[in-house]
Amino acid sequence: MVGRLEGKNAIVTGAAGGIGLETTILMLREGASVLMTDINESTLATALTKVNTIVPASSRTGRVETKAVDVSSESQIEAAIAHLDSWGGLDVIFNNAGIMHPKDGDAEECPEDIWDRTMNINVKGVWFGSKHAVRSFRKHGKKRASVINTASMVALVGAATPQLAYTASKGAVLAMTRELAIVHAREGFRFNSLCPAPLNTPLLQDWLGDDKEKRFRREVHFPSGRFGEAIEQAHAVVFLASDESSFVNATDFVVDGGLTKAYVTPEGPATEAPKNLAQS
Ligand SMILES: NC(=O)c1ccc[n+]([C@@H]2O[C@H](COP(=O)([O-])OP(=O)(O)OC[C@H]3O[C@@H](n4cnc5c(N)ncnc54)[C@H](O)[C@@H]3O)[C@@H](O)[C@H]2O)c1
Description:
By secondary structure, this protein is of the alpha/beta class. 40% of the residues lie in helices and 14% in strands. The chain is globular. InterPro entries: NAD(P)-bd_dom_sf (IPR036291), SDR_fam (IPR002347).
């Protein structure tokens, strides 16, 4: 199906890789215009080249541009959203950028500066994105708009492999998103949280490396026997961004292959994973 986001102007934060990059590609395929933003300018430039190869300008109706943005800086977020004024104003923002710092740990291990840095990016970044999105929706008289904030399944279940700052930050995203959804419901501005399970993206996989024990400790909890793929999250984001989800608001939208509902998981080989578009 194509055209599910026809005419919509979107911003994706953390668009240089993982979920953000796959989402950008799917959004363009569905007719949106996308401003890809990321703190890392060089990976953002590489990502744009990939996007233009996978969804060439001749095959799409929307435009794609990039802008370096650190989501923990309010002025940078504000400028990115203002960039879409000349496009007709923002319709969708995917506040997706986030970090999970290797020095994060349990209550004793997590250094205070890592706690603050995690909160500044994962929580304040989502707040700034949501705040300036609302201002922009109002300024442009939008009656249907969608904000999708990336949380995590770790905000719903406890784990004995702690990353306390990260988990707390994602819990804050869930609570903040829910409240924003209720506050703005009669303006037509929807807010939903995306709760991914652990994924096969650099954020987690670089950290796990080839440590088999660390890897198994997590894999055994997946009913499907495998980590999720970024594209499996991106499909959910497109749904939440589109008007198909007009009555979906304030949800913790869990995309986890059943992990948070599982007690004992099956044995046998894992299911086959879909291919990410940016890897093809
Ligand atoms: N990978 C997982 O297992 C997993 C699970 C649950 C939730 N998540 C969440 O999904 C989101 C996307 O993660 P991903 O797996 O695609 O990881 P990723 O590391 O591939 O992508 C994250 C992107 O965010 C960017 N970024 C980091 N700090 C930034 C900042 N201050 N400002 C702007 N951009 C910044 C990075 O440069 C990177 O391109 C994150 O919020 C993450 O916490 C990931």
